[in-house]
Design brief:
alpha/beta, Rossmann fold, 2 domains, binds flavin mononucleotide
């Protein structure tokens, strides 16, 4: 799945008369460049067809939780993971009851469960039903439960209902729903005014046209940080030496050597607010490179190394009010080395990790880091790199 510039929204459609209004909502979100992932209950398909919904969203509508063609190994979890917001419109009395009690036996309730396992992302429910169903104590109790859990409920409007009666129960207007969704998404975008640069991967310093001196950085941590920053609204330039899937950033520039990286940063750093230097940059490079391939038959060789430029320290000297985050991959004396790097290079924050551990760090999907700034030191316990990245961005957001 691709992250669009505007974001990923799951729209759950359930079996009420107002299901057709979900089509207008999808059109509005798609027009504004959102990627809309539709999910329907079986009852909803009695009111509008999945084909209409798929055509409007340009996405396959999920109507069967056991459909193996849903993207990903465990489709509902992956969908819940990628989405920035979930909206159920219209929400029946039935789906509201299911979600309040943790039932997950249809696509909408199942994906709701997976999506709202934690409260990090906005979940918007828009009830629509006959006014007696709406005022039924069971429905009111279920809505209270959901509100207490932090779910955003958009109250129905009062007016003439399809059943011929008048009362509170009509689906809120499409414009109201749209504006609530945009506002909820906006509140999650605490980095929206930030122009960020993230570097990722290791450098390669050539010895001859074939061989290089490199390091074991996979770039995964940098990509995870870039993805988190993008999710939270930052404009992100990723400067990378690796070929991982595009995390949905605004721009990607490629480097190989420390000198390439320096050149790119020299041109881009002046217009940024935040630099996260997750790339592992060589401290040394061969003093001379052979322009012809070296051969064993030529006998042994000695490679003289010279220091590379200290890119981050040099940028920090002229930083103005830009926020600079460095990384310290250490095999011993991790904290003391990270502290001295923080100070000697003039950084605002440094992320230290222990590369002697085999269960985290280089190449692994996992990491455990200590975030240090002048005043504090905080451990983010072993977790997937994408969650570690979230913790790092939380720390940056609290200081920037
Ligand atoms: C014509 C018709 C209209 C309905 N409209 C609504 C409605 O607006 N709101 C509601 O909560 N239920 C409505 N229902 C009842 C639901 O369709 C029913 O409770 C169904 O089981 C909901 O399934 P779902 O929650 O899985 O979509 C309607 C039923 C029919 C037959």
């Amino acid at each position: 799945m691709i992250l669009t510039a505007a974001g990923n929204i799951i729209i759950g459609i359930t079996g009420g008369i107002a299901a057709y209004k979900a089509c207008d909502l999808i059109r509005l979100f798609v027009k504004d460049k959102f990627c809309v992932h539709p999910v329907m209950t079986k009852a909803a398909t009695e009111f509008i067809t999945p084909l209409t919904v798929s055509c409007l969203s340009s996405k396959k509508t999920v109507v069967d939780i056991f459909d193996s063609s849903i993207e990903g190994n465990v489709g509902h979890i992956e969908l819940a993971d990628i989405a920035d917001l979930m909206l159920i419109a219209p929400a029946t009395a039935d789906i509201i009851a299911k979600i309040a009690s943790g039932i997950a036996d249809d696509p909408v309730s199942l994906i709701s469960m997976a999506f709202y396992g934690t409260r990090e992302k906005p979940f918007v429910i828009v009830p629509a039903m006959n006014y007696r169903m709406y005022h039924n104590p069971a429905t009111q109790k279920n809505l209270e439960i959901l509100k207490e859990r932090g779910v955003i409920i958009i109250d129905p409007e009062e007016g003439e209902l399809v059943c011929g009666e008048t009362g509170e129960g009509r689906l809120a207007s499409v414009d109201v729903i749209y504006n609530v969704v945009i506002k909820a998404l906006d509140e999650t975008r605490d980095m929206k005014n930030i122009n960020a640069i993230v570097t990722a991967g290791g450098t390669e310093e050539p010895i001859d046209p074939v061989r290089v001196i490199s390091n074991r950085s996979s770039g995964k941590m940098g990509y995870a940080v870039a993805k988190q920053l993008k999710k939270r609204g930052a404009k992100v330039t990723l400067i990378s030496s690796v070929d991982l899937p595009d995390p949905g950033v605004d721009e990607i520039a490629k480097f190989k050597t420390a000198a390439d990286l320096k050149d790119i940063l020299d041109s881009k750093f002046p217009s940024c607010d935040l630099l996260v230097m997750a790339a592992a940059v060589a401290d040394f490079k061969p003093k001379e490179q052979s322009d012809k391939k070296l051969h064993r038959s030529d006998g042994g060789i000695t490679i003289e190394l010279e220091p590379t430029d200290d890119i981050i320290a040099n940028l920090a000297k002229d930083r103005g009010d830009r926020f600079i985050v460095g990384f310290a991959a250490e095999s011993e004396y991790m904290i003391s080395r990270a502290k001295s790097k923080l100070e000697s290079k003039g950084l605002d924050m440094i992320i230290a990790n222990d590369i002697s551990r085999s269960d985290i760090g280089f190449g692994s999907e996992y990491n455990e880091v200590v975030v240090l700034d002048k005043n504090c030191e905080k451990t983010i316990k072993r977790d997937l790199k994408i969650n570690i990245a979230k913790g790092i961005v939380d720390e940056i957001a609290s200081m920037i």
